Amino acid sequence: MFPAINATLNGTAALLLAAGYVFIRRRNVPAHRACMLAALAVSTLFLGCYLYYHFHAGRTSFEGQGWIRPVYFTVLLSHTTLAVTVVPLALITLTQAFRGRLREHVRIARWTLPIWMYVSVTGVLIYWLLYHAYAPG
Length: 137
Known about the structure:
Helices cover about 85% and strands about 0% of the residues.
């Protein structure tokens, strides 16, 4: 159950990030702020669920063979590395916005958004590969 919940939370975060980007491009700051705060909340909930699940369930093995195996592990490695990176980036980006330092907020958000989006989308891809595309049985 938790892997599907986690994938849903990742997908929701990606949709909120995309909507937030669209809103800020249209200069709708209140809607942008709402989407980005919701994305942060959903991503935080994801992290809690992810840690809880892996603390109790342990490790999950990838069953795919052939060409997909190195592809999967490359995506997993980049996803994991950037997931660790996006946490401080998101917090710094948020802090700059709350302090009214919009120039700094925009400067770091240009890095934070694509990394956060990549992590969210690849989280869903990893779930699909693990539990649907190459699941045993």
